[in-house]
Amino acid sequence: MSSNRFARTELIFGKQAVEKLANLKVAVFGLGGVGGYVVEALVRSGVGKLDLIDSDAVCFSNINRQIYATTKTVGQYKVDIAKQRILEINPEAEVETHKVFFDNETSNLFDFSKYDYVVDAIDTVTGKIKLVEQANLAKTKIISSMGAGNKIDPTLFEVADIYQTSVCPLAKVMRRELKRRGIERLKVVYSKEKPLVPKCDNKANDIFELNDQVTRKNHRQPPGSTSFVPPVVGLIIAGEVIKDLIN
Known about the structure:
Helix content is about 35%, strand content about 15%. By secondary structure, the protein is an alpha/beta fold.
């Protein structure tokens, strides 16, 4: 076994698997609390080619849960910070960044056939549905994060097909919309924990900066979130991606 930054991974999966990961391309849509940790685990697992898609810059309200968010990085684009971090971990990685808010209007900017795997870590239902549709048309594997906001028990998250999910409000909407479109399966990470009701007053939205893309676009109060739930979801997703790519 060669001495390299992925030697410990090689002990688990073998040299051939590590070499395979170095030549595969994964697209991660959304670099928030979930997506940032997906990217972190993928690059540390040896995935050699990454496309990063997110239009947001870091804001102060991201600091409690997002791996790219620090006081120093506030105002910087998440994809730029992510690329810099990836190359610090693995200088040989190939990284493409896209400052794009993915939805029906921007979906034609991406060629899903060039990806070996797609990760859906975005927040909007319309965007998530379009991602699944595009990945299915290209016959590209995809995994989707369901609702992680307003939840506090990271041990309840599990991997399932979308049609086996229950309780999660986002999963319910996705089941209905995907069924309408004739999409028969989708691997997701979700939780049966009932979302908590955020504790806030009428001025709560004042703490969320205008560059919070989802809040601005949907004119809704963002969910509460912790430092320990979104990262767990992201790491579960990354683990599924790695196992699927190797096998």
